[in-house]
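Reposting from the mailing list since nobody answered there.

I have sequence plus structure tokens for a pair of proteins and want to know whether others read the tokens the same way I do. The first protein:
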Amino acid sequence: MNPAVSRQIRDSVQKMFRFTDTLSLYQDFYHRIGEDDLLRFIRKNTFEFGDVYPFIYVKMYFEGAEQDYKSIQHVLVDEMQDYTPIQYAVLAKLFSCNMTILGDSHQSVNPYSSSSLTKIQPYFADCQGMELCRSYRSTIEISGFTQKILENKKLIPIERHGDTPTITVCRTPKEQLAEIQHLIEEFRQSEYATLGVICKSQQQARLLFAQLHGVYDTMVLLDFGSSEFQEGIVVTSVHMAKGLEFDQVIVPEVSDDLFKTQLDRSLLYIACTRAMHKLDLTCCGEKTKFLHSC
């Protein structure tokens, strides 16, 4: 076909479309529901994270995928609960191979956007679900304690006993710091190899690390820049501790001021379930309502 005629046909076909690029189409979705202000850019050509996967999903249907993933033979997804349904919709369209998806809906860092087996099954035809209910990590005492924070009726703890978890309510921040040091000394005198001091946020972890590092020079701050996980005393946040386990865990500042919402409740549950043998919590002032029955 003559190149000029080919261009003319292409131009004529393109004029039939109301939108010629994915961004315009995506912006129109917001416009149609009267929520134009919800679509925001962090900077030029950079979406907020919440729009990334919906935009990719639209782009794949409108323009097609830029890369062929047919050579991928198997996809493994861990921490299933932390992915949203739209992310699974993208995965299902990108990969036609078999997948193994693992997770625990009780371990979500954001219960408001977490995914369960029921939520993701519609995106994968003929998928098979399997529930593993036995917990091998924590002692019966720790499992019983965490069940009072966030109940999982299907959980079956392994028959292994240990110390009863403790909650120490302190009058001042100085007193709480002294209690944390006391618990660290107990760890150093024990046969345990790993101690996790798990704070609600990375900012709190950095502050506590700065207060204690001069006393314990082998103490490690685990953050997003860390390249490896070490034994010994580790100070970190709940987000960084997800998927990890420690012989002993200290959860500082479990006060009612810091742990209020269902998201906070989920974070507290995750922090406490990192403990295998010993669990201790401290706070300054009134403890969180999520510990009232513990």
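The second protein, same order (residues first, tokens after):
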Amino acid sequence: MAYLHGKSIIHFDLKSGNVLLSTRDKRPVCKVADLGLCKRRRDTYASGVTAQRGTLPYTAPEVLRTPGQVTEKADVYSFGVLLWELWTGKEPYEGQNYHALLHQLSQPNTRLRPPLPQTPEWEDRGGGPRELAPGWAALVESCWAEDPDQRPGFPEIVKTLRDQALSLKHSARSRAKALPAAAAPPRS
């Protein structure tokens, strides 16, 4: 996403179904797919993006409210929804009526967001540890900022995620060092 935004390209449909995961040298690799709705930023201003673009639960409010003034920060909003989905294991706004949701998200001064969980439900699915939750919640909230200018860019998001990963690695090492050494088995 940082690469696309560096080329002034807005994806407009960033969602879990458009993120492909693989491994290379036993390390996870993430690829963004389905570039069919992409537009250059200057083209969104010149022609105005008038039709709803993307998949509604992931669509930034400004795409619906002021379509001719959309920036790359619309993708950041979508990424925040994707992070929420990873956190909860649920689809955003699951079970809500599409037209009611479209109406709510289109209204000015309406801050509709899926609720952040109190505890990370990913632990039940073998995901990240509990101490990741505060940083993850802060990142999701910053991606969902009502004012697009207040949302981080993808270089900042990548730095935040790397810092969280390093912090987890450091705390795991600290916990491992704090464990007592295993006693040698008794000799027979």
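Reply #1 (J.P.):
I read it the same way you do. DSSP finds seven helices and four strands in the chain.
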